[in-house]
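pasting for the record
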Amino acid sequence: MMVIGCMLLSIGGVPIVTSIVTNVFGDMESLFAGAMSAINSVISEVMKTRVRYVRTERYYLYFSYSGEFMLVLISEVEDPRLNQLADAVLSEVLKVVKDYDPSSLMYNLEMQKLIENVIKDSLTKHLPSISSVTKVADMLIASAESFRGSMKLGLGKIIFLPEELKAEKIDVKVKGEEDVKELVNSFLDGDFERAASETPALFKSDLARILYAKAALKMNSFPPDAKAPPLSRVYSVIMSVEDSLARKLLMAELRRFLEAGTYYEREKLIDENLFELIEKIKAVHSDAGAVYMALALPTGRREIIEVVEPLIGEKHQHVRHALKATLSILKTSILRLEEFEKPSAAVGRIKYELSNVPPGLAEASYNYLLAFQFATLSNLMEKDMDFDAGRELLSDTIKEVEKRYDSLRKLSRNVPCDVLAANYWFTYNALTGMLVFTLHAEEVEKEALKCGKKVAGTIRWLMDVARRNRISVDMYILAMAGMLAAYSRLMFLLGTPILDVAYYVKQLALPELENLWDYSPHHYLHVVIDCLEALGYTASFLPAEAARRSILEGVALGLEEIQRRTRDIPVISMPVALNAIRFYVLCGEEKAKEKARKLAEETSNVNKFLASLAMRSLNIDKAPKKKLAPYDVFT
C-alpha cells in the first residue's frame, strides 16, 4: 500500500485538506505535486459516477465517499487494498469533522491542521501492518502439503514469554555500612556481580535498590552461563523503589524481557524526562547523581552522553568505550554515520577504535563490530562501488567479523545477548544475504551449505537464550526473523523448500510489534521484511501455479511498498528492492516482470554493484532444482 498522499474534498470536488505522506522516511512533495494535477484532470468525471478507482498516466487514485465529504488516496502502484484503506481513513476524519460542513472548514486553519494529522496518523497505523505478514503465512500454510522434496526445521514453539511476575516482600538484612557510590563505581567498571551482590546490605536506601535492579537487569541480559538474579526478585525490588522516575525506567527495562513491542519504552521515558535526568546526573559527586548516571546508560541521547563523558574522564574504561560505540540498536537502522562524510571513512575509524579496545571489554568490541558491519553495508551504496569491489568488500568483511567472533567467543559470556543477536543478524542475514547472490554458480552450493550450518547454530542459540529470558523479546524476534529469512534463502539456492517456515513466521508476527513503529520504524520494518522474504523463498517452490503467483505477488508488493517508503535510507531500500525484483520475476506473469524491470532500472541508477545484482535478480525466474540433498543441520 504505497500511498504518497491524500486529499479531503467536499462532495462537490472543492479541496479542503491536502496531506503529503512525509513521515520518517522523507519528503515526497515533488511526486505529490504531479498527483494533484492528475486528480484535477479526472475530478469532474468522478463527481458524476462516484467511482472508487481511477488510473491516470502515472498515478492510481482510490476514492471514498460519505455524506458531504470525499477522500482520495494517491499511490504510485496499483493495490486493491487501498480502497479499504481509503474508507478507514475517511472514517477517522469524519469523527473530527462531524460538527462541521465543508464550507466552514475551507478557512479554518486549525481544523485543517487537525484533519491533516488525523490522516497522517491513520496512514501510519495502516502502513504496513503486521497482519499482512500473517495473511501471507496463512496462504502458504494452506498450500504447504503440496511441496515436493521439502524439509522441516521441526523447531516447535519458538516464542517464550514468561509468566506474569508477582512482587514479593523484600527481606532487608543490613550487614553494615557500605558506600553506595563505591558500588556505582563497580557498576561503571563493569563489575555488575559485585554491584548486585553487595547492594542488598543497603536495601534501606532507595538508591541501593535502584542500583541493585539496574545491575541485576544487566546480568540478565548476558548469556545463560553467566549467573544472574531471577527476574521475579528483580521485579520485587523494582516495585519497592520509591523514586517514581527511577522505578518507571527500571520497569521499562524489565519489560523488554517480558513483552513484545516494548523495546523502546525506556528511550521514550528518557526523552520525556531528559532535562530532569541531566540535572540529576550533573550532581555526580552525590550518591544520587552517581546512581542516576548508571541508571541512564546506555542511551542514544547525545545530550546525556555529552554530560557523562567529561564526568567520567579517563575513569571507568567499560563505560568510556561503551560511549564511544554508543549503541541504540536499530533506532536508526543500527547506527547513523553523521560524523563521517563517507562510509569508507567510517569503516577506517571504526576499525581503528576496535583495535584499541582493551582486553576484556568484549561488549565494546561487539558494539564496534556492529557499527563496522553497518558501515560496510552503507559503503556498498556508494556511487563508485562496482561489482567486483562490492563482492570483495562483502567477503572480506564477513571473514574479518567471523575471525573476531572466534577471538571473542570466550569473553562473550559478559556481552548482552541483544548485542550478540544484532551482530549475527548482520553477518548471516544482511551481509551474507547479499554475498550469495554475487557468487558464481559453482560457488553457491558450497557457500550455502557452509553458511547454513552457522545459521542453524544461531537459531539454536537464539531459542536457548529466549527460553531462559536472557534476551529482549523484540531483539529476539528481529534476529529470529532474520535467521529464518537467511535459512530460507540458502535452502532456496539449494532447491529445497522449508515446509514449516510459515508456522514460525506466524509465531513471530505478534500484533504488539506495531508499537515499535512510532519510535523505531526501522526495527519494525526489518522484522516485516525478513518474514516476507522467508515466506517468499519458500512459496517459490509451490507446484500450484495460482497459489504460487498469489503469494509471491503479495510478498513482492509488500516489499516494494517498503522500498518506496525508505528511498532516502538506501541500506534498507536497496536490499528490499532486490528481493522485490526476485519475487516479481518468480511470479512468472509479464505484468509482474514489468514491475521487476522498473525496480531494477531504479536500483541500477545507484551504482554498478547494485546494477549487477539487479540484473542477476531479473534472471532468477524459477526456483532452482534440488541440489545434492543438504545435510540436516538441525539433527
